[in-house]
Amino acid sequence: MGVIGKLVTLVRGSARELGESIIDANGVHIYEQEIHDAKVAIAEAKIELTGVMAKEMQSARAIEAARGEIARLENLALEALDKEKESLAEEVAAQVAEQEADLERETQLHAEYAVQASRLKELIKASEAKIREHERAVQMAKTAESVYKATQSVSESIGASGSKLVGARESLERIKKRHEDLSDRMVAADALDRELGTRALEEKLAEAGIGATAERKEKVMARLRARRAEASAPSEEVLA
Amino acid sequence: MEHLQERLNGLEDLIAARLSGTSVSFQPIPGAIPVIQVVIGGREELPIFVTASHAQILCICYLWADAEVQPERRVELMEVLLELNPAIPLSSFGRVDGRYMLFGALSANSRAEDIASDIVALSENALEALEALADYLI
Questions:
Q1: Which residues of A touch B106 (CB under 8 A)?
Q2: Mind telling me how many Å the CA of A171 is from chain B's nearest CA?
Q3: What ipTM does this complex have?
Q4: Quick check: A140 and A7 in contact, CB under 8 A?
Q5: Which of A9, A123, B82, B91 has the most CB atoms less than 10 A away?
């Protein structure tokens, strides 16, 4: 059973066990020992593989040499036959036969080395897969434990700080309320900005002699002059 | 503890930058394993807890407790959460020891930028999820 399977069993039992006993329950130390053993096995297999591959190469060279020798001896035997030296040819043929026996032995050895090499490569691959699998199991067990312990720390921290654990609905209401306050304040600030902006503009306009405020003084003066003119006009008439 | 805090160095600024300058504070909390509490201004009720193991960095936002779920709508809620999981970017629902959570899991080799993005997404997802799923709560 994989680690997830074991986790499922623990979760169905009690959540507390998930954090507290996962390491013991799954014998992480056993996994770690197996990871160590697999790494040693890989190192040994690699050394052995190097030796086997070297022998494989040596036997390939021996095969090549035996084949060359057989071809050379056969040519010599043919030459002897051409020159009708029957007994000489037979002597050479005996050597060819010996070489052929050597070649057969070497070919068989070569095949055996090849099998050994591929078996070692498979072993290394399988050990590496085992390491990956175990490392994943250890990591998963440790992660499950760490998540549980983190949850525990958080609960304890909330308890220790004296702050009461607030319900989700209340939390949401508080955040929304704060958000509304903020957006209300932003609307208000916006309105204030606009108002101040208008006033500033009006002041600028007044300075430039544009708008109602700017003309007010002139209007008052004009009105006063008009009244003065009205008041003085009849007296002038009298004088005249 | 130092290691996790080191990893999270400068993260406040990265998160704040992603939230248009909202205040962000980091606070280690005591316990058996290193856990850092991340509080984002305006969302103080939904802090995010960051913890790390060899395999991953985990950012958790606790949503509600088992006891807060309307008993008759419990199964329905579970199914909704399962269906939602693949659709929510970067965050997934979970439950540990009777507490529902939204969490983001990152590779232990993640860059600070990736952790910041995950925390921001988690905070926003958590707030939205709480709002969307409040009907299932007491």
A1: none
A2: 5
A3: 0.78
A4: yes
A5: B91
